[in-house]
Write a structure and sequence with these properties.
alpha+beta, two-stranded antiparallel ribbon, 1 helix, globular, 6-stranded antiparallel beta sheet
Length: 172
């Protein structure tokens, strides 16, 4: 009888462990690139994991951070850059031509200002996507809301005045 109870407990424990493993592996890490116009919300792409405002790349989905050795000045804004190459796609190596990213690739550039004071968080401004299509590149721009929880697709450009402390001095 004791052996039967021990086997039953072991069996229930094993099934519970298997179910927990299935649930933890069921997180959808796939990046969601539309075939037509861009999504209305940046979060729909699933390019960042966790809280969207943490700007943590979804590396399990194929989002990889990169940087430039000669970045352009952008009104004191900081930038984070990421690239996505569809699973199974390759980038041909050619030193005599421009880089040919495969269809479905995405270049992501995120603009933000660093915290003005210790303990504050970054202030997100906009996130731009360049999506490689069959017929060229499609641009999508997302403006972050005031609560810094989501970025909404912009159909037309706009000018926005911002004031931030840069090297101890307020700049507008």
């Amino acid at each position: 009888m004791r052996a039967g109870i021990s086997i039953l407990i072991f069996f229930v424990f094993t099934l519970t462990l298997i179910q927990c493993t299935k649930e933890s592996n069921s997180i959808d890490n796939s990046v969601n690139i539309p075939t037509g116009k861009g999504h209305d919300l940046l979060s729909t792409y699933n390019i960042f994991k966790g809280n969207l405002s943490d700007i943590i790349p979804n590396e399990a989905g194929g989002i990889v951070p990169y940087d430039l050795n000669m970045p352009l000045f952008s009104d004191y804004a900081k930038k984070k850059r990421f690239i996505y190459i569809p699973k199974g796609a390759i980038i041909p190596f050619d030193t005599t031509n421009i880089l040919q990213l495969p269809v479905g690739s995405v270049l992501i550039k995120h603009f933000y200002y660093g915290p003005d004071l210790v303990g504050e968080s970054d202030h997100h401004i906009e996130t731009r996507l360049l999506i490689r299509r069959d017929n060229g590149w499609q641009t999508e721009t997302y403006e972050w809301n005031d609560s810094q929880t989501e970025a909404v697709r912009l159909v037309t450009g706009k000018t926005k005045e911002l004031t931030h402390k840069i090297n101890g001095t307020l700049k507008t």
